[in-house]
Amino acid sequence: MEKMPSAQNPTWVIGGKTFKADARTKVESHGGHKFDVGACVKVEGDIDHRGEFYVSEMEIKNESHCQK
Hints:
Elements lengths: L10 E4 L2 E4 L5 E3 L12 E7 L5 E8 L8
Parallel strand pairs: 3-5
Antiparallel strand pairs: 1-2, 4-5
């Protein structure tokens, strides 16, 4: 993950792609891992009519599951 959302900008940047999250987004963290820049995450969601990707679920993954 390269960028996390802020109050002014509700977007995430993951793998060079921009994703939007809202109140419906489910965020899961296992084993005490924190969502932070540099974390390995799995993202699921849908593309809206404007072509923007909205996250429905985001989960922190073990670093061994990520590509470097």
